[in-house]
Amino acid sequence: MIKNKSLVSINDFSKDEMLRILDLAADFEANPDQPLLTGKIIASLFFEPSTRTRLSFETAMNRLGARVIGFSDVNATSTTKGETLKDTIKMVSNYADLIVMRHPLEGAARYASEQSSVPIVNAGDGANQHPSQTLLDMYSIRKTQGTLQNLNIAMVGDLKYGRTVHSLIMAMSYFNPTFYFVAPDELRMPQEYKNFLDDKGIKYEEHHDMADILHIADILYMTRVQKERFSDLLEYERVKNTYVLHNDMLSVSKDNMRILHPLPRVGEISTDVDQNPKAYFFEQARNGMFTRMAIIAAILGAKE
Ligand code: CP
Fold it and tell me: Does the C-beta of 50 come closer than 6 Å to ligand 1?
């Protein structure tokens, strides 16, 4: 039962609930004009910058007929006067029926869900989780591959701080994937996620060279090296250009292979890839709008 549930970690939803969201997203893609939430108010609280997540969530809210309150610049809020997250959430949950929140601190969304009288949807908390991104990634994978089952999923780039890859491996673990992790030593997949895969009996390999996996992957999930997560900027400079995907590298890839990226990109996918039919990242971002309509509608009980 998704109604009234917070979505803080992808593990808050069962496999069946995730699949329900994907089916609802397909329904919204086929018929986007469904003003099911007229009279509802949804808060959009972005304590950290965003383009896609905030705008696709807010578009989803508007398409569903809800009214939207919130902020995208924390400097315009009383946080700058020292108001705590707890007090902010207690206030906003007096006003809104649902809160969508992005915050730079890991665990902030879980903490907010413990203070709030209305459901919280985590739109990204530090390097921890980004569950709505995961659901839109799953939607994009299923749409392009026709299945979620038994896929070879390569993840490239910042696997240490990349919250999208952390959430995605957890969700895809229900579907017998094989993961190929490609990262420099400084940005390898953290041990806790590898332990999770070991416990579930999910296969994975670790590589340094993207060329090792380009002929194997069904999904090539590229990520940005996130400058904002580094305390040592010299380390960022050392690793930021480790992997750059160019169009001519794709000649060895499988016909069904699709390139995903949560975006924004800053150089890890050359623009010469954009015209390749295997480039799927802009469609992926579009899918986010339908997936977020599904998440909001399900939590607010408009679709059961
Ligand atoms: N994918 C993603 O989270 O993008 P934004 O940071 O622009 O929201």
Answer: yes
Query: Which residue has the least CA distance to atom 5 on ligand 1?
Result: 50
pLDDT, tens digit, for every residue of 36-94?
999 999 999 999 999 999 999 999 999 999 999 999 999 999 999 999 999 999 999 99
Q: Is 168 in the pocket of ligand 1 (CB under 6 A)?
A: no
Q: Does the beta carbon of 265 sit less than 6 angstroms from any atom of ligand 1?
A: no
Question: 304 lies in a domain?
Answer: no
Domain that holds residue 26: 10-130+288-299
- For residue 28, the CA-to-ligand 1 centroid distance in Å is 21
Ligand 1 centroid – CA 201 distance (Å): 31
Cα dihedral 206, 207, 208, 214, rounded to 10, equals -140
Domains in the chain, number: 2
- Per 3-state DSSP, what percentage of the chain is helix, strand, and coil (rounded to 5)? 45, 15, 40
pLDDT band (50, 70, 90) for residue 255: very high
Length of the chain: 304
Q: Mean pLDDT across the stretch 267-295?
A: 97
pLDDT of residue 48: 95
Tell whether 232 and 95 lie within a shared domain: no
Mean of the per-residue pLDDT values for the chain?
Answer: 95
Q: Which residue has the CA at smallest separation from atom 3 of ligand 1?
A: 53
Decide if 5 is inside a domain. Answer: no
Q: Tell me the pLDDT tens digit for each residue of 9-20.
A: 999 999 999 999
Nearest residue to 166 via CA among 136, 201, 194: 194
Phi, psi (deg, nearest 5) at residue 103: -150, 145
Is the CB of 263 inside a 6 Å radius of any atom of ligand 1? Answer: yes
Protein residue with least CA distance to atom 1, ligand 1: 262
Catalytically annotated residues: 52-53, 81, 102, 130
Once rounded to an integer, what is the mean pLDDT over residues 265-271? Answer: 94
Distance CA 46, CA 81 (A): 17
